[in-house]
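tool_call: predict_structure(chain=1)
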Amino acid sequence: MLKVSVNADCGNAPKKLLLRDLNIAFARADVEGILDKFTEDIRWRIIGEADLRGKAAVREALEKMQNVLASELVIHSIITQGREGAVNGVITMEQGGSVAFCDVCQFASAAGKKIKLMKSYAVEIKTED
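tool_result:
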């Protein structure tokens, strides 16, 4: 069972809610829930790993990640301004280990109903034994 904590105040902010829901979908490995938030020509840059273009490429990458399950998602902050937004937090995996992440997004329009560009930064959190 996924435990979700959102420290960010999303209030009545549709773009913040979209980013919150996107990250919850990632933690649940919900491929369709993720793809629903992207434009057809989405570009997803996973810094240091991949540069994916279009929903088909993103779908293929997400399907390969489905066996990595999260036990906890903590969203520390969500910031939006105009056509841009960012979310950062920590995701803990069922298999052990945690990753600190930050997604910087560009929305297709100021209304923020779909994301057309996402740059993802992820750093494994090392624990001392």
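agent: The chain has a mean pLDDT of 93. Proceeding to next step.
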